[in-house]
Specification:
The protein is mainly alpha-helical. It has a domain at about 15-55. Helix content is about 65%, strand content about 0%. The protein has 1 helix and no strands.
Length: about 55
């Protein structure tokens, strides 16, 4: 998945309907949250694997 940086994100064009713009914003927030959740999941799994390796 391609990373979306906030600095690269431009707000919706003025001619875009407000509802469409809101959907885009919600989608971007969802993708950001999903990406963060994956990072946390991988980090958590690494800790578990390291603990098991030490035992």
């Amino acid at each position: 998945m391609e990373r979306i940086d906030k600095s690269d994100h431009e707000s919706c064009a003025e001619e875009a309907p407000k509802a469409e713009c809101e959907l885009v914003e919600i989608g971007l927030k969802w993708l950001e949250a999903r990406s963060l959740a994956r990072v946390v999941e991988v980090s958590f799994q690494q800790v578990i694997d390291e603990e098991r390796a030490e035992d």
